[in-house]
Model the fold of this input.
Amino acid sequence: MADLAQLRDAIINGNAKAAAAVVDAAIAEGAEPMALIHGYMIPAMDEVGRRFECEEYFVPELLLSARAMKAALAPLRPLLTSSGVPPAGKVLIGTVKGDLHDIGKNLVSSLLEGGGFEVVDLGSDVSPRKFVEAAQSTGADIIALSALLTVTMPSMKYTIEALKEVGLRDKVKVIIGGAPVTQQYADQIGADGYSENATLAVALARRLMSGARQATA
Amino acid sequence: MRFKLLSCEVFYREMCASIARSPHQVDVEFVSKGLHDLGGRAMRKALQEKIDGVSGSYDAILLGYALCGNGLGGIEARGLPLVIARAHDCIGLLMGSRERYAEFFEANPGTYFRSTGWLERGKTVHQLPAGTNAGNASLDDLIERYGEENGRYLFEEFTRYQQQYRHLTYIESGLEADSSFEQEARSEASARGWEFSKIRGSLTLFQQLVNGEWPEKDFLVIPPGGRIAASHDGHIVRLEPLERRGD
Done:
């Protein structure tokens, strides 16, 4: 029997190889993917988030746990797809035009993937036009914008304006983050959400998705 | 008049030269550049403590800072007025105008900047806030802390953005005694495989700050009972009144 407690520990401790190995063994034994995800993997990431909130964990630990979560999810993905389980939502993510700082964006991207989202990462220095084109071609539910510099923050506003121009603004949720970004700025430019750190960004994306589903139900 | 200047040490030479020429008495305290690396909230807290700790009879407290990643957003003027130049960060101050910086930024994406302060007072800018200084750790440090495989992964994550830079621009203040700073910047550019360029900076904003010349276009004066806020427009910073109720 695969030791599933080890799966939880491997994710909490950022051990990608061990996490993937336990999942492989569990799949071979016929384990139910959703039972692994909800029983062990998501609780492990919740614990990682808790440790981050109370400053037991910092960005390096978060990156390693997110990587272990991704490694554990990889062998499960084809099984989920074949059994018709949809992703939590599709997120388009990028650092805005002029900004090359990508650590925060990569971390949010990893955590969203770990949280069951399908993530399309456009990289850094992404122009409003590129965001719009990608939103059109991917049909993303959420667009996540990152900036580390106050110099580049206006690109967030321009991206929202560009979405309005092509009539896409009501079809996607826009969330923003990055060290100098604030809730006040999110309100000012009409973003749908702001998160002050990467773990809260996943909760924010989930909240927006459930709001969107209720609205269309 | 008598001013207290709290300045980031990255402007050490520019400030000292400007203070020497000021008609006013300026008492200066240089603050560690490390404050910048703490991230917005911790930087704000540390700087506010410095401001609150200023004692003596002054007409104003001058801030040798810019908005600095919003690290100055929320800084409050208590007993004395605060004065700050309208600039996003130190590069805008060193270039002498935020318009010039904006034009340069637009025309030269992916540029790393160097000045005397950045060369002699710690070269790195951290992307990560307090407690996460692994962002600046060496590969060996990371391997020692997180093991071979995870250490290498983290190092790659933390340094990848540097590969996207293509230029290094040295901002010359004109105060340099010789070409050693420029040479150091050139070697750094060549070691990283970046194109080197040099531009002439300006002492104008530093001089105006310590001279008590604060045109509204380029400076914000925060009277007691106000705080600094990011304006997210061409003015960069604005005055925000403190709430009457405790917040």
Q: What stands out?
A: Chain B has two domains: 2-89+203-241, 93-200. Chain B is about 35% helix and 20% strand. Residues 141 and 147 of chain B are 10 Å apart (CA to CA).
